[in-house]
């Protein structure tokens, strides 16, 4: 059934052409180049925000803007429709709301599934209720639940089973992870018992049951005793009622869920898993070792489930220039320290493949592939010879974070820019001309007058 909006039906042919031609190709990219365009260019033309859940694209001219400013754009340009960058749903200017059209929804779903297939994700389908379901809903309207913006469905307390607050915070994070919620509430887990576990011992099955318990509308505290027992069974080093580390429990739980996910599909590439846990939580970390003698770079790439960050004490101890107080540490500060090049001294020499000898080197970590959900682990313990001390420093978490500066591709683009000093030295030493031209970033040519200079003064620039 279509929404009451009549404007989509009247303009369906031109709207469909616009959506299929340009807009969906950007919103649902199905190749690396399209994903790069999506990441670079989708920002509000007015307020310049990028990470906005209500970002929209004009269906007529592909102008990107947040919901407030896209309405102004449609009014000024007399364009009729926009589309949500996040979902692909159509926004009608005259109705002032997102509208539904059956034919447009089929095209939107096809574009979304093309994007999901390119990422090796399962495709989405629409469930149409049959006559029996329709009759039940008609005869008993109380059985139909309509969620409001203020709905608390899914919010449920957990009973502390004796020093299990570390587990409870991890469970709350897991059951409110959107991708996992979609996976389990659409019944996509099909238990495949193996030699390592029986169906009665499957942690994935228990997690599926837990999602049902959280989202069925009950607000009484839930007792996760079976989940705890299964983790103890499959990760015996955590068994016992003493206090445990939440991060250690999280990694152990992910490992058990990964082993019990029972992915029946073959990985697209060797040594890669297609299970839901790896799809959501696994990223790739790139480590570059640069030889201090010849400059040869040795690169290794490893999967990760979490990013362990130091507390960036050098940032903490730097006084604020205006007030003299200490600066507050942000998550970005910790990430910048994480990717900062580290010189490995004479006690940690590595064998250079080019020199074929053990030499000092510089190590730098970058993120090769980002996971859908990133877990940041803050190292709050400072170790010394005698004891260890927990740092209670507050870390500022932004609502949104741009991870581009911490990726391997960003570093490669930054270091691939040619060193202008080399060309300057070459030109000055080989030419007798006393002027030159250059093209600036603004696209304008400039004429420069050259004056005699020594080689040393140019190299030191």
UniProtKB/TrEMBL annotation:
Its EC number(s): 3.4.19.12
Localisation: Nucleus
One annotated Gene Ontology cellular component of this protein: nucleus
Coiled-coil region(s): none
Record GO biological process: protein deubiquitination; proteolysis
Keyword match Zinc-finger: yes
GO molecular function, one term: cysteine-type deubiquitinase activity
Gene3D superfamilies in the cross-refs: Cysteine proteinases (3.90.70.10), Zinc/RING finger domain, C3HC4 (zinc finger) (3.30.40.10)
Keywords: Hydrolase, Metal-binding, Nucleus, Protease, Thiol protease, Transcription, Transcription regulation, Ubl conjugation pathway, Zinc, Zinc-finger
One Pfam family in the UniProt entry: zf-UBP
Record domain USP: where: 156-461
InterPro entries: Papain-like_cys_pep_sf, Peptidase_C19_UCH, Ub_carboxyl-term_hydrolase, USP, USP_CS, Znf_RING/FYVE/PHD, Znf_UBP
Reaction(s) the record says it catalyses: Thiol-dependent hydrolysis of ester, thioester, amide, peptide and isopeptide bonds formed by the C-terminal Gly of ubiquitin (a 76-residue protein attached to proteins as an intracellular targeting signal)
Domain UBP-type residues, every copy: 3-118
Keyword Metal-binding: yes
EC top class, as a word: hydrolase
Protein family: Belongs to the peptidase C19 family. UBP8 subfamily.
Protein name listed in UniProt: ubiquitinyl hydrolase 1
């Amino acid at each position: 059934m279509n929404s009451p909006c009549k404007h989509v039906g009247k303009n369906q042919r031109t709207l469909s052409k616009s959506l299929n031609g340009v807009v969906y190709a950007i919103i649902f990219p199905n190749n690396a180049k399209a994903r790069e365009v999506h990441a670079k260019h989708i920002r509000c033309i007015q307020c310049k925000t990028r990470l906005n859940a209500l970002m929209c694209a004009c269906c007529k001219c592909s102008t990107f803007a947040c919901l407030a400013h896209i309405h102004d754009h449609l009014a000024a340009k007399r364009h009729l429709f926009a589309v949500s960058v996040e979902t692909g749903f159509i926004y009608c200017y005259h109705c002032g709301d997102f509208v539904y059209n059956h034919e447009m929804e089929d095209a939107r779903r096809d574009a979304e599934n093309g994007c999901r297939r390119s990422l090796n994700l399962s495709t989405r389908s629409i469930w149409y209720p049959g006559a029996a379901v329709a009759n039940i809903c008609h005869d008993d309207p109380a059985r139909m639940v309509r969620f409001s913006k203020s709905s608390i469905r899914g919010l449920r307390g957990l009973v502390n089973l004796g020093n299990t607050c570390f587990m409870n915070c991890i469970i709350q994070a897991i059951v409110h992870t959107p991708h996992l919620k979609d996976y389990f509430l659409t019944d996509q887990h099909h238990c495949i018992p193996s030699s390592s576990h029986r169906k009665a011992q499957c942690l994935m099955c228990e997690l599926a049951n837990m999602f049902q318990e959280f989202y069925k509308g009950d607000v009484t505290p839930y007792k996760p005793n079976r989940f705890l027992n299964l983790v103890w069974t499959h990760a015996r080093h955590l068994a016992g009622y003493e206090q445990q580390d939440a991060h250690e429990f999280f990694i152990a739980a992910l490992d058990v869920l990964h082993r019990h996910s029972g992915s029946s599909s073959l990985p697209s590439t060797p040594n890669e898993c297609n299970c839901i846990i790896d799809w959501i939580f696994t990223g790739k970390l790139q480590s570059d070792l640069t030889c201090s003698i010849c400059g040869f770079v040795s690169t290794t790439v490893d999967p990760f489930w979490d990013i362990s960050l130091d507390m960036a004490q050098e940032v903490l101890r730097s006084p604020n220039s205006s007030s003299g107080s200490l600066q507050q540490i942000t998550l970005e500060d910790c990430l910048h320290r994480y990717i900062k090049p580290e010189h490995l001294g004479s006690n940690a020499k590595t064998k250079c493949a080019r020199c074929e000898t053990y030499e000092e080197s510089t190590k730098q970590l970058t993120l090769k592939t980002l996971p859908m959900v990133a877990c940041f682990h803050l190292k709050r313990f400072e170790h010394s010879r005698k004891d260890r001390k927990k740092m209670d420093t507050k870390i500022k978490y932004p609502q949104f974070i741009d991870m581009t500066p911490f990726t391997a591709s960003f570093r490669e683009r930054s270091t691939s820019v040619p060193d202008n000093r080399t060309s300057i030295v070459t030109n000055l030493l080989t030419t007798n001309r006393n002027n030159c031209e250059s093209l600036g970033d603004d696209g304008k040519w400039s004429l420069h007058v050259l004056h005699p200079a020594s080689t040393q003064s140019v190299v030191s620039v």
